[in-house]
Amino acid sequence: MGKGQKAWFEQAAHSLDPVLIHELRRLREHDDDKATVPVIIRLKKDLEDEKKEHVFQLCQEGECNAVHGELELVRGLYGNLHPETIRQLVEHEAVDRIFHDREVRAFLDVATRSIGSRDVQAKLEYTGKGVTIAIVDTGIYPHADLTRPKNRILKFVDLVNGKSEPYDDQGHGTHCAGDAAGNGYQSEGLYASPAPDANLVGIKVLDENGSGQMSTVIRGIEWCVKNKQKYNIRVISLSLGAPAFESYRDDPVAQAVEKAWHNGIVVCAAAGNEGPYPMTISTPGLDPVIITVGAADDHNTVTRGDDEKASYSSRGPTIDMLVKPDVYAPGTDIVSLSAPGSQLEKQLPENRVGEHYIRLSGTSMATPICAGVVAQLLEANPYLSPNDVKSILMSTSQEMSGDQAGYLDVRKAVALAKKYLAFQKPTVSRM
């Protein structure tokens, strides 16, 4: 390569995401002939089967390459490819863009009372009954707060280790499940969530260290879309993310959650824990369509007067210069379910609360709390679309100082959701 001449992957910046270019540059410096890169290949729209099959064949040539499967939601394939194969794909007429399949990481006591969920449960009896929330995370341990007096874990899908029975070797997903739908069975109702009667589906996409690949997260979302009707999945909770390096229009995970949204599933995603710095919203939280949740600190008081944005909660604008987050929910010192023997129990023994619970903070906690609130709204009015839900939550939220996003007010949100029934509930005309 002559002086000043760009490498092939730098010349192909229009077809490669910035993180993949960086990874290819790193591999070139290490000069490893057999090294491969985990990638997601997005194909062009309205593609002929013959051209698609040719891409498959090209990706499988060479002893180093491996194609792991297809990602229907984003018109893509995922696998590990040698840089030379990536170079050939850049010029292929069927390939739209190639992404580095980078790492994604996992980012209730007073909380349910401070946002008004307990009042709605007690006075209006909206507890998320009949609504299923999908927790896409590290798994779900079958905690008594989820299985007694009735087992509300309808399905468990393990995309990491392929196990069939519910488990959680990390603990993060179990805490999130409790944030959304724990009933406080082992705490006499003290640590109950906004939707203690909601059903759950657990999708394990992150390993025991709380990390995983973007492609696995997309597969988890894809499973929810395909099985929406079977399990009545109305909400997906994503307390995970990765740094955002490009527009939501190109980001594969952002595009996947949009597809879920347009298939009638409300998606709640964590803003991230990189605050108080601006422009730290992660993906898929950067997507303007879905509900991106920031964390508030309720200072462990029921009154709302002292509630404020948590310092760690990521701030907008997004990389596209859009306003995010959309709403705030309690995320600081949240007591929820603990998975016995999990990594969290080993790493944070000082956070244990009795035998069955653990205290955690983050937008990871705020997100499933918001998902539980969404379940309350959908019980109050099952005809709400995802856009309706987002509009209601944002328009009824309480102003947070210095932010366009507000703090959840479940009483007002449920009241407005019920008003929608006046023009949404189908009527049967008489002949």
Automatic annotation (TrEMBL):
Keyword Hydrolase among UniProt keywords: yes
Origin: domain of life: Bacteria
Pfam families in the cross-refs: Peptidase_S8
Keyword Protease included in the entry's annotation: yes
Catalytic center residues: D137, H172, S364
UniProtKB keywords: Hydrolase, Protease, Serine protease
Domain Peptidase S8/S53: 128-399
InterPro entries for the chain: Peptidase_S8/S53_dom, Peptidase_S8/S53_dom_sf, Peptidase_S8_Asp-AS, Peptidase_S8_His-AS, Peptidase_S8_Ser-AS, Peptidase_S8_subtilisin-like, Peptidase_S8_subtilisin-rel
PROSITE patterns hit by this protein: SUBTILASE (PS51892), SUBTILASE_ASP (PS00136), SUBTILASE_HIS (PS00137), SUBTILASE_SER (PS00138)
Family the entry assigns: Belongs to the peptidase S8 family.
Protein name: S8 family peptidase
Species annotation: Polycladomyces zharkentensis
Lineage: Bacteria, Bacillati, Bacillota, Bacilli, Bacillales
